[in-house]
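Tutorial, part two.
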Amino acid sequence: MRAMLTGAAIGAVMGGLAVGVSAFAWPEASPADARTETYRQLDLFAEVLARARADYVTDFDEAEAIEAAINGMLGSLDPHSSYLSPEDFEAMQVQTSGEYGGLGIEVTMEEGFVKVVTPMDDTPASRAGLESGDLLTAINGNPIVGLNIDDAVKDMRGPPGTEIIVTVLREGQEAFDVTLKREVIRPDSVDWEVKADDIAYFRISTFNERTTELLEKAIAEASRQIDGRPAGIVLDLRNNGGGLLEQAISVSDKFLSGGEVVSTIGRRPSDIARYNARNGEVFKSIPMVVLINNGSASASEIVAGALQDRSRATILGTTSFGKGSVQTVIPLGADRGAIRLTTSRYYTPSGRSIQATGIEPDLEIVQSRVTEDQLEKIRRYSEADLPHALTNEEGAERRMPHMPDEQPPEDYDGDDYQLDRAIEIIHGGQLTAAGQNPNAG
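Running the prediction step on this input gives:
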């Protein structure tokens, strides 16, 4: 079994109903009663399937119908639990290994459409201009409504070099088609560059099996180019949709010396764990800024939360996605696929859950100027708005949209305002060696 921090979403919003009873209360059902009810419901399912087999207007694939029923059950639990057919299970293993054929986008489901969580760097999706929050409504002219997320992803993947047309619905625009050519997606999940002669900049786009290894190489190469210790570090986790739990922990470990990184709590004792960093860190005591936005989810939120709570880095950008749960992929045996099941919640070193709320930056700085009308769109793109999303067990809610603390000047003509500000803050001595703003209360 493998712990995952990214998943697909499907379903409809679940509400709550509380009824107060003062004079009468129903007796609690015994375990035997609960089992009897479960068997009754399974009999009901078998009867419905038999009726459909006998009376439906045409023949249908019963295996596909049962698979859809399983997916519907799991999808009703939360946005990230689902069934993986043997083919989907194999594809998932290929993806987490760091190589597969497709478009290069992290996606979820919303209102029956595929929603782009983030386009990966230097892939057909990013080069075609797909953006976080775009809705894909059709693939090669075939409507997506009615597909589950795994089927939609399967349709988007294919042999490298083949073309695919996706229909995109973007807020404020008419639907339009985009033609993309599939490629072997072998994302170098870590990119690096020396900025302003002395700033070590590391960009992590996803957390797959190669991420920590690639980060170690990037750190070594950046050190050689700078010929020593940098003046500061920028870790860019913007539009990083997540990935493997163990990779989030090992990446955090690079910038911490001992102490907690994250803890997880589930129903089983095996799902309760506390993960600590080892002694020793790279670039110790050098000021550090972590960049996040609302496309930063799961594993990237673990890293940002750990470095924020441990006062190792200043978090700059906008509030992250808010996915505070862990999925375990559980194989079901030969030729039966697997299930991706939410098995625990995770907590930052201070014990806080960011489920449905996200990581709030220490310095709220947006990438481009926003108007009051655009704030609602920003709010809607979060875990809290996914169908069947888990609530925050601490009762916390995502902060409502408001005008950001800082926007780019109207005459700004650079390419990356958040990164430019991170470099300015480091060079301006506005961060202590631990990475925090010394003037903050």
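Residues 6-26 have pLDDT under 50 and may be disordered. In part three we will examine how such features are distributed along the chain.
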